[in-house]
Amino acid sequence: MIKKIDKTNGKDWALVLGASSGFGGATAIELAKIGYNIFGVHLDRQATLTNVSKIVKAIEMTGQKAEFYNMNAADDFQRNETLDDIQMRLKDTNSGIKVLVHSLAFGSLRPFFGKSPNECMTKAQMEMTLDVMAHSLVYWTQGLVFRNLLKPYAKIFALTSSGSKEVIPYYGAVSAAKCALESHIRQIAMELGYLNVSANAIMAGVTDTPALRKIPNAENMIKIAQSKNPRKRLTTPQDVANIIAGLCSDKLTWVSGGVIHADAGESTTSYIG
Questions:
Q1: What contacts 117, CB < 8 A, 6 or more positions away?
Q2: 96: in domain
């Protein structure tokens, strides 16, 4: 049953896709700290729902509202059902979506070529990876615009990685998705200019998240990143959350259509030592 939302606080909302861990979870909490109510979209089973509860509690501790949806963000029916619910909850209020964060990290990590076809990336796996990690940004944004939920001067952020321009074993499909994601951000920034919407990709440094741990040889990636980073540590989800929250300032509406590095210079450093 859909709960009737309390419409008394009149604050705008942030919609965070992938809100249950990593960048999405940290960003949801940080956006709540600067005054946004949070709609969170996540896909979790019973074993990981405890962490979702912790994030919701942390948001509510700031005095903001938290409404989370446990669903497949790439499913057309579930996406439209969720957006319809958000529209109903915000009906007859002055509130809307002022921030959209795309932090979906679910894709296939397989080589393009192997000893047999069974070891290689399939068409279905390639299409799923790009749909979840890139194209879904477009569909969620369309849904907000067509329902008049995206407020003027809204901010859109998508999490990319250096894999969009580097070759990493088993990362081919995800790399393609990150390239597409950055392209989508540029297109969104151009086409939604009439709403004064700004859209940017955030390229985080190597961060020890559940998504990273799924990449084969992740430990070696962590060691290299720690050696390359000028500050000799990994990027954290909180580092990225702080940057996104800072970019939500009303004074930074002219920053749009680009890739913003959130890595303390890691991606520009070739020296290891």
A1: none
A2: yes
Contact at 8 Å (CB) between 102 and 18?
yes
pLDDT per residue as tens digits for the range 15-44: 999 999 899 999 999 999 999 999 999 998
The helix or strand, by DSSP H or E, that contains position 128, with its residue range, turns out to be helix 123-130
Residues 202 and 270: beta-carbon distance below 8 Å: no
161-175 pLDDT per residue, tens: 988 888 888 889 999
25 within some domain: yes
3-state secondary structure 198-242: EEEEEEECCECCHHHHCCCCHHHHHHHHHHHCCCCCCECHHHHHH
User: CATH no. for residue 139?
Assistant: 3.40.50.720
- Whether 6 is covered by a domain: the verdict is no
Is position 3 within any domain?
no
Report which DSSP code applies to 94: S
